[in-house]
Amino acid sequence: MNVFLLYEDKDWGSAPKYSDANNIIHDLGLKTIFSVSAKEVLREDGKVTGVSQEDLFLSQTMKTVMMTPLTSEKEIMYRQKMLRDAIKKKKLIGELYSLVEEMLRTWDVLGRKENRKGVTKSSASRLISDIYVLKLFVETLSTLKKRLGEEILQFDAAGFHAFYERLCKTFTKEKEEALNKIIEDISFYTGDAKKEEDIPAWRAKATLKPKFVLGFQIAGGLKCDQFVVEEVSTKNQKFKSRNSFGERFQEFWNMKKPGAFDVRNMPEIGEQVDALEYEVVRFVVSYCSSFIYEFSHFFDELRFELGFYKAAILLEQHINRFGLPYYFPTVGDRGALRFKNLKEFVMAMEQRIVPVGNTCDISDKMLLVITGANQGGKSTFLRSIGIAQIMMQCGLPVIADQYESGIFPSFFTHFTRREDSAMNSGRLDEELNRMSQIVDHLGEFSMVLLNESFATTTEKEGSVIAYDIAKALTEAGVKVLTVTHLLSFAQRIYKEREENQDTGIEFFSAERAEDGKRTYRMIQHEPELTSFGIDLYNSIIEEA
Predict the structure, then answer these.
(1) Model confidence over 250-287: pLDDT tens digits?
(2) Spatial contact of 508 and 524, defined as CB atoms under 8 Å apart
(3) Looking at the structure, do residues 505 and 358 belong to the same domain, yes or no?
(4) Residues 58/37, Cβ–Cβ less than 8 Å
(5) Residue 380 sits in which domain range?
(6) Cys staple from 429: which of 41, 74, 196, 425, with CB 3.0 to 4.6 Å?
(7) Interatomic CA distance for residues 210 and 235, integer angstroms
(8) Going edge to edge, which strands form the sheet with 238-240?
(9) Same domain, 178 and 223
(10) Is 50 contained in some domain?
């Protein structure tokens, strides 16, 4: 059975991830978002008392989904509608996630991990585990269908309705009843485990054993010959040799137990009865193997996909906790990029503040050059756009009053790095190597964020490199947003724009008050010839 809670019509895992995922995570600080989405906000009497420990599965799930971009407006709208419903029904989503999580944990206790590792167990122990697994599957599916059915009419998203319909169609009422009868008929076997550890304490329950009617002929030496099973009857069902089930079992038994046994030897008769019980139960359980196989991967997939919505719900808790605005983005055409009061989410989570927001419309611009005062918020502004774009492209809301953008599944970041001992070459070589890797993976719809790139060499050389790369990328149809202190590069681009009246290039600058104070807002402004480093110097002197 397909889950299809993240995509309308395809399985999870078939979509490609960002080729530059590691650099995107590092440059935008996304580990903070992964971690926050795995911690529940704890409250008592309506007041926040702290947060829970990080759920590593949820943080890894959020990372995986965020690094797998949606590629169409239809996919994004589907995910957004599902998430809106999940937030509205957060209690139920949490309950279903916990149900599946506990089921998988129990399955592991019953030996799923051992099976994967090829660990062998006795035949009886394995059969007992198989019975418990069958019961576990049926009970979990029954609860899942019951709880979802109780509240399905309160969901608006078609995806949840389609999932419930598939569940009801695959796990029908008739199948549920039939499986429960089989479980009841064979559950006697779990009370016959030879060792206490063969019966998990949370599930052990002995019931009445079935009645076996055996037929045979007396041969020489008072031996039983031509052994047959005439009838197997339980509390709910009766199987006779003349019906199809009895005939199939008789053939199966004859293959397993040929020959005869001596009725005068009572221990041998006991062993034969034990063997018969085992073979009967194993034969019945084997008829449920297709059911087990059908749902064997379903629960892992369901945990993952519910896990994303669970993590997104926790993320929303933290957004509300700090009073941040959030908005489900609008998908525009390829050139669209406009937003209102966009804030840097990672900074908000790390510093527990409400950052200054920016309002801009830079639609139809292939190149945005950002210059201005040191510590004026330029890099923060660039990161806010990058974080919002990644969140939009996985269906999450962004921290803004409004946000509209095109879709760029080919997304890259190139931020300057501090030199460290792990570098095998100079910083400029390292920057050029990373840029080469980006160029090798550019796609049809690409966006590249450059933050103080190529500032590790001289101003003159860095400006030449930055100019050549920016021109080559934009001419190839790549949307480029760059923060730079390379004033020669910025002035050259600005001069060409004025001469050619190129409307595809825009310039922003970090706003600075007359007294030197930073407002952390970006304004449209031609490149300035200084980064106002003297302001920082004066502030340090005053503090000293």
Answers:
(1) 565 555 554 444 433 444 444 566 677 788 888 888 88
(2) yes
(3) yes
(4) yes
(5) 325-543
(6) 425
(7) 7
(8) 211-219, 223-233, 238-240
(9) no
(10) yes
